[in-house]
Amino acid sequence: MLFFVNISGTNHVERKSSVHILVFLLLIISLRSYSQTDSYNQIANEIQLARAISEKWSAELYAGGAFSDTPSEDKIFKTNIQRYFNVWGNYYYSPRWKFSSAIAYYRNKDVPDIGQYKSNEWRLTLQGIYYFHKIGYTLSTRMRGELRYMQNEDGVFEDKYRYRQQLKFIMPLNSNFLRGGVFYFLTSEELFLKPKAKTSGINFFDRNRFEIGGGYLVTDDIQLELTYTNEFLPRDETNEMYNCFVLTVTFNNPLPNLKKIIRPETVKENKAD
């Protein structure tokens, strides 16, 4: 979904200073110790379909996958490690609060974090996002709880709980707000916490995820986004680090827009009525 930000009356110096400070803090938070760390390179893609149902409600469908090198294969595109789809329902309680819930299916295969085996996973998610609407940018904090029902190495399903806390920053670059034809910058920092489970390490602190990148709105309803994500996973024997480039394509209200393209005369008739 799109964020619209009004920056009329912005003090240019204050705006640049705030951005530089925030980016600096996020970079500092994301610094890690890379000693005794196994690194993996990954490429992921995701398509998002979003539809407004009413003034307060919207629905979304996410589908995607990821490729990675593995201990047994050094070519990234040789191994498709994960495929998934998510169905989301969103409720906009106020301009600052958004509450969401989702159910998802993940087909994991050769995922280094889980282990080199096939694992089916069902995931139920509850989350809340609070927006700090500032002049010139949008800052948000996301609180997400996940119940994961997934197979371990023995093929047995078990429950796995995880909490995620994210801080995200978005700023339009060539306009006062996000709309068609506008480029934007984004960065985020996220912490993952979890209890013990056989499908993962024993650390309560699961991982840290740092993201930086940007996007372009082709139209008000079509959005392209390319980001670099760095994940650091502290583990008992050897730490893990993932370097992943993610391409995301978003279509807002795809069916109504497709109808306009296929049968424009019908849309004109409806407006006339």
Separation of the first and last Cα atoms: 30 Å
Q: Got a strand count?
A: 11
**Number of separate helices:** 3
Rg over CA atoms, rounded to whole Å, is: 20 Å
Account of the 3D structure:
The chain has 273 residues and is mainly beta. The protein has a single domain (45-272), classed as Porin. It contains 3 helices and 11 strands. The protein has helices at residues 12-29, 254-262, 264-272, and strands at 37-52, 57-68, 80-92, 97-111, 115-134, 137-151, 157-172, 183-193, 205-217, 222-233, 239-252. It has an 11-stranded mixed barrel. A hairpin with a 5-residue loop joins strand 10 (222-233) and strand 11. Helix 2 crosses helix 3 (264-272).
Ordered list of secondary-structure elements with their pairings:
Elements (H helix, E strand, L loop, with lengths): L11 H18 L7 E16 L4 E12 L11 E13 L4 E15 L3 E20 L2 E15 L5 E16 L10 E11 L11 E13 L4 E12 L5 E14 L1 H9 L1 H9 L1
Parallel strand pairs: 1-11
Antiparallel strand pairs: 1-2, 2-3, 3-4, 4-5, 5-6, 6-7, 7-8, 8-9, 9-10, 10-11
What attributes characterize this protein structure?
273 residues, Porin, single chain, 3 helices, disordered N terminus, 11-stranded mixed β-barrel, mainly beta
